[in-house]
């Protein structure tokens, strides 16, 4: 069996029009647009893991789920049909597999292919990718165009956050990115360090079996309860009665996009009113012995950082049960048996979980070069949030931080498919973003969020400028531009 698998792997073709790197949400979405909007384009998806899913295959911690509404986190071309508003990792993986199979995308995925280097050869007008396969052997793939669907964080290393004395601790220390399958936490006292989406997910999930679960945070986040299942309003119910299912799903998706966008811009325009509304909603769900300030009073305004969602208010239910708690303090030191806080309080956990964020990374850590000269992506401006200044025939997928990631992936997929069609129409083999007088371009933040780990983006990702030299910011405007806007401005084609 092993021999036949090796033969099959070695027989795989290695030369394509397009190579997509990564079989997560971004890669699968991009493949759909290559299939349907760039007909005749040969492509392969190179995936370093043994199955598709990306994030949803990597993370295995209890309760892992989406932090966006599945109506928009799901693909527009393969609607999410379950009732759950926030899908679990298991549900999302099954959904992605089915979506890929429905359009034959799964047949184009080359699994266990880890890409190390990608070099553009100007004379050959193509990319050469150095790849390690599942047997540890080196392979070389060739492509006229490559698309990075690698997400925005490092799969191999978590964020290196300094926690004083952590190495002294005698119990288990776990990072959610590398969750041990055999972990038994029944009857244990657990401390989760962090206050982001991962911590908010872990607390109620672990409280069911643990003796106690404490969220130890330096500063709080906004935690918003989300209904567990979709409940349609009168408009959608009327539409369902008279219009086809396809139209109904479009209405539901469009409504979700508009509502989430409205809430984001409302928070930006009226931060005090938004914070007051969130404060009132939070206080209603807290146990009587827990105060809103300081535990749920963030130092920042709503949507200056991502909000944490909890389905059915499960996070607050765990607090009310008495099995979960929150401490807002800073860590002075960790000894073999306890966490010593700046206030003088001590906590004695059996297990410490460091839910302290992700380590950002551009392009999956692949070393990019042109004619052997390494590319410093962070020193270049982005073109329309999907290509890099002076780099030929390379696209990258970046989602949004204020709405579902998938929306950004679909915008980029549509735009790159249009570009490939335009190149074919013009007989062009190469497309390169060229910026005149780049020294006069004013640099903007890559992401409009203030989270600690997000601040690293400006030194890792292609720079954001103005006009076409900016990252995607507004889905409704971006999707119009992707489908009907000018996609030749700022590009040199030959």
Record keyword descriptors for this entry.
globular, five-stranded parallel sheet, alpha/beta, 494 residues
What can be said about this structure in brief?
With 494 residues, the protein is α/β, with parallel strands linked by helices. Helices cover 29% and strands 20% of the residues.
Can you tell me about this structure?
- The protein is an alpha/beta fold and 494 residues long.
- 29% of the residues lie in helices and 20% in strands.
- It is built from twelve helices and 23 strands.
- The protein has helices at 2-10, 25-37, 55-58, 70-73, 89-102, 197-207, 234-242, 245-269, 271-285, 314-321, 405-426, 475-484, and strands spanning 15-21, 43-46, 109-110, 114-121, 126-132, 138-148, 172-174, 189-193, 212-217, 223-226, 308-311, 324-328, 331-334, 339-341, 346-347, 351-354, 367-370, 373-374, 382-383, 387-388, 394-396, 431-433, 491-493.
- Strands 1, 2, 3, 4, 5, 6, 17, 18 and 21 form a nine-stranded mixed β-sheet that branches. The chain has a five-stranded parallel β-sheet with strand order 7-16-8-9-12.
- A hairpin with a 4-residue loop joins strand 4 and strand 5.
- Helix 2 runs parallel beside helix 11, helix 8 crosses helix 9 (271-285) and helix 11 packs parallel to helix 12 (475-484).
- The longest helix is centred in the middle third of the chain and has 25 residues, at 245-269.
- The chain starts with a helix and ends with a strand.
